[in-house]
Structures are given as structure tokens and as C-alpha cells.
Amino acid sequence: MSDRYGPAPRRRARAVRVGTVTVGGDAPVVVQSMTNTDTADVKATAQQIAELWRAGSEVVRVTVNTTEAAAAVPRIVERLAMMGVEVPIVGDFHYNGHQLLAAEPACAEALAKYRINPGNVGFGKKKDVQFSTIVETAIRYGKPVRIGVNWGSLDQSLAARLMDENHDRAEPWDAARVLREALIVSALESAQRAEALGLPGDRIILSAKVSGVQELIAVYRDLAARCDYPLHLGLTEAGMGSKGIVASTAALAVLLQEGIGDTIRISLTPEPGQSRTAEVVVAQELLQTMGLRAFTPLVTACPGCGRTTSSFFQELAKTVQEHVRAKMPEWKLKHPGVENLSLAVMGCVVNGPGESRHADIGISLPGTGEAPAAPVFIDGVKAMTLRGDNIAREFVAIIDDYVARRYRAEAG
């Protein structure tokens, strides 16, 4: 039995430059998101991109489906620059991308990358021409392309061809395997076609998205074994709330653990009134809890039990979590390395002191029947005991002071 600890070594993929961000090669896994505003609305779209960027999205994709949307893209990029937001913008094209890029050259130039869906780029005899037009535009402006296949819009002529080939096999595959093969072949043949047209191989990223966990794992394992293009991971139409989070995590964690994946997106359906940034937070937390990247201090907190009848430790854990996320835009500029800070908020004496000692800063709150005192541990040593009604405020102040002292010294 292997005693290897941690994820497998990353699959070696070509490095693709997307604006200021590198995808693949030795670069860390990149977090991506997508807006849901009308791209033609410059103000709303720029505002949402800024929110996603502040939350930690390193690449943001926008829908480009109309002439108005295409014309808005350079204005959005200009507005973002005025806001001090530097994030690569990707244009998502379906059906009419060849027309929009030709009609709006400023859009073609402003975008950091184009996304093409081979199943929606065109139909019949027009497909090759329209695909070629987009690729030639990417070549002209020096842009990378993501060839993104989706089983909800799979090229039906390709699927039919593979079904016919399967019929002639001595031992035919089942229909699900044929469809998985169609996704992979669509991506690979499109990439080969793009290279034949003159697009360098180090400007191509592939994705092959499905909405089933096991299907996604099977597709990407096979795709990773058959090419060295960077791979964009995502469970398409993951769903809302805990279902979407669990499904995306279940699929992507397996692949990331196997060293597969160079950029990810969590395709959550936002709950009414919920910020679009939730998908960015989930992506970051997935990578951070797997030990692949660090984005913000992690807060360990106990789930509660019969010993923790008070809800105070839950409220404190929430306060601390919200505080560190709110402070990160400032901290990451002033205190490099603070994203590796570990915090613990525990609810009773059973595991509280032990977990608190393992964290950089931890607090063990009193459980039922325990003395009304909360020892605080800093770097594994009991530093003080908090009491009274201001524990939350005092503990947050301790965190702020620790960050200022420790990470300013490391940065300087």
C-alpha cells in the first residue's frame, strides 16, 4: 500500500497565457467565474466583475451574444481599468461569435480569451467556416481560445458518426461510453483543427463539461490521458445551494487529487438575493481545504453537541469568518502570507484546547457547566483568558494585532 500523502503530482500541461494570468505549466490552479448580467449593461457588468475579482476570481467570463454586448466589452474593460480592477475577461460565444468578432474588432482586441463551443459554433456546411473565422480572429489578435464542449449541446453529427462506428465494433460500447467519447473527440478534433489553421498549441485550453459527477470524472481522466492542453474543470449546471456545492466538490476533488485540472469554475445557481461571488468562495475553499492553494485564513470550528448548549461559539465562528474575508483585500496587499493563517473557534473543553493549540490563534469557549472563561492560544501557547460580554470584539482585535505583527515582519 502506498504511503503517499497529499494529491498526486500535477499533470504536466502546456502553459497558456490569459491576459496577466498563466493557466497550466507550473502555475497554480486558477479560479474562474462568470457574470450573469446583461453584458450590454456596461455599469452592471463591470460592477459584478469587480465584485467577483474582489472575492478572488482570477478570470471572469462574460456572455457575448449580441452586437450590443460585443460593443460593450471594450467599454467594460475600460471602466474596470478606471476602477483599478485588473482581471482577464473571456468572451463566451455561441452561434454568432464569428459575426460579432468581425463586426466589433474592438471587442476582439479587448477580450483576453475566446470561448468556443464546437456544438454551437455552426451547423452543417457553415460549421467549419464559422469555426475557422473565430480561430483566425484569435490568431490575428494573439488571443488564446478555450474549446469548451458541453454534453447539453454536443455536435449531433459527430455523435451520430461515433454511434455508427460503435455499431461496427465486435463488442459495442454502451451508449453512455459513446457519448463520453463524443465529448472527448469533439474537443480534441477541434483543437487539432485550430492548430491546423495556425493557432499555436500553447494558446488552447480544453473543457468537456457534463452535469453528472461520475461522468465528469470519467471524461476528464480520459481527456487528460490523451492530450497535454490545459484543462478547465467544472460540473455544468451543478445546481443550487448545498446540492451544487456538494456535487461540484465531489467531482472536482477527485480530479484535482489525481493531478488533473488547471483552472476551475463552480457553476452554482445563485439563490434569490445571494451574491454571485458564492461560486468564487466555494472554488477557493475547495482548493484551500485540499492544500492546493491558500486564499484566506481558514477557521476551524466545532459542530456543537450537547456540551455546547450556547450558540455563542457559532456566532463567534461566523464573526471571525466574516471578519477575515472582509479584511483580505487589505491584508493581501499589506501582509503577504496572511492567507496561510489558521484560526480555531471551539465550543468546549473536550477538543477545544487541543485544536486551539494546533492553530496559529485559537479560542476555547466554555461549554455547559464549565467555568465562564475562554482561554486564547497563540502559536500553541496559552496567552490569555477572555471573560465577559466583549469576547468577540477582543478576540477579533487579537487576530488583527497578530496579523499586523507577524506578517508585516515576514513581508519586510
From TrEMBL:
Major enzyme class: oxidoreductase
Cofactor, how bound (note): Binds 1 [4Fe-4S] cluster.
GO molecular function, one term: 4 iron, 4 sulfur cluster binding
SUPFAM superfamilies cross-referenced by the UniProt entry: Dihydropteroate synthetase-like, Nitrite and sulphite reductase 4Fe-4S domain-like
Gene3D superfamilies in alphabetical order: Dihydropteroate synthase-like, Sulfite Reductase Hemoprotein, domain 1
Catalytic activity: (2E)-4-hydroxy-3-methylbut-2-enyl diphosphate + oxidized [flavodoxin] + H2O + 2 H(+) = 2-C-methyl-D-erythritol 2,4-cyclic diphosphate + reduced [flavodoxin]
Domain IspG TIM-barrel as annotated: residue spans: 14-283
Residue ranges occupied by any IspG C-terminal domain in the UniProt entry: 299-400
EC number in record: 1.17.7.3
An annotated GO BP: isopentenyl diphosphate biosynthetic process, methylerythritol 4-phosphate pathway
Binding, [4Fe-4S] cluster: 302, 305, 348, 355
Pathway(s) served: Isoprenoid biosynthesis; isopentenyl diphosphate biosynthesis via DXP pathway; isopentenyl diphosphate from 1-deoxy-D-xylulose 5-phosphate: step 5/6
Highest taxon, organism lineage: Bacteria
Cofactor(s) it depends on: [4Fe-4S] cluster
One matching Pfam family: GcpE_C
UniProt record similarity statement: Belongs to the IspG family.
Role this protein plays: Converts 2C-methyl-D-erythritol 2,4-cyclodiphosphate (ME-2,4cPP) into 1-hydroxy-2-methyl-2-(E)-butenyl 4-diphosphate.
HAMAP family linked: IspG
Protein name: 4-hydroxy-3-methylbut-2-en-1-yl diphosphate synthase (flavodoxin)
Lineage summary: Bacteria, Pseudomonadati, Pseudomonadota, Gammaproteobacteria, Lysobacterales
Encoding gene per record: ispG
